[in-house]
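Changelog note: in this version the structure field was regenerated for every chain. One regenerated record is shown below for reference.
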Amino acid sequence: MATILVVDDELGIRALLSEILSDEGHTVELAENAAQARSVRESLRPDLVLLDIWMPDVDGISLLKEWGAGGQLTMPVIMMSGHGTIDTAVEATKYGATAFLEKPITLQKLLRAVEQALVKPGLRALATAAGLLREAVHGGGEPAANGHLNVTPMLPSGPQAEQSFDLDRPLREARDAFEKSYFEFHLAKEGGSMTRVAEKTGLERTHLYRKLKQLGVDLTRNKRGVA
């Protein structure tokens, strides 16, 4: 499961892509222009962006260049256009786009491009986050021969004292398992305070609640009467 930002000035395109990607289990955020896209990207840090090239305020290529120049191109970006040319596709790739989709976008091409864009960045993010988690809590972890990643944060005894991640399974399942453990760790560390967990993880509270619900995190287990 990934958080995907769809940026397109056409309501019909946004609605269609949102429906398709939501059916695939992804969390979809929508923006109709560059200003909204900047805001969503900053607050939610999406795993992937689907970015239309032709928009009324700032075009997609300019926004892509802006993110790249500012060090904000931390996620794969798939460009979309109904008037695309080879030169446009080459330019988009030059500035950091991972793929180019020509409208009308078929279901098969969309899902294939999304899957391919998420695979490598997703695996890197999983490994990086696991390493940061081990470092942050001064714990330890190493890949086991059976394809599991053991992460042992130094917490009081309880269900989060040790976690084992089975990496020999589909990426989406591995990501969900890690994210659930990640948020459970921070909830335990912050005594169930959603405010402090939101600050620690860099998520807006509404999005954090939605993410925890999707992952099946028990919000009552670590409550200490704080919000």
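Spot check on this record: The longest strand covers residues 3-7. Residues 121-125, 127-146, 152-162 have pLDDT under 50 and may be disordered.
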